[in-house]
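Listing S7. Sequence submitted for prediction.
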Amino acid sequence: MQKTIGVNELQSNLRGVVNEVIGQHTPYILTLRDQPEAALIPYAEFLRFLLWKEADILSEFDTVLSELAEENAVYTVEEIDADVEAAIAETRSIA
């Protein structure tokens, strides 16, 4: 079960709170002016969060890549090459 603690109270009880987070795996919500602003969680949970976030980002990237592949499937390699060459030529003429 998570607990909530104000930043000022945390300052005076830091060692005890950290020991509770580590030893009992109790997450703490840190508040500032009664508003939740941060969380103190065991390191293993933080690592799981990072892996989940990375998987979420990769999944989103795969979705976008798939959508782009569908949209671009109507163009031939020759058309793409011609567009790239035209863009290069236009860029060089501006510079």
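Caption to Listing S7: primary sequence and predicted structure tokens for the chain studied. The first strand starts at residue 3 and ends at 6. The two ends are 62 Å apart (CA to CA).
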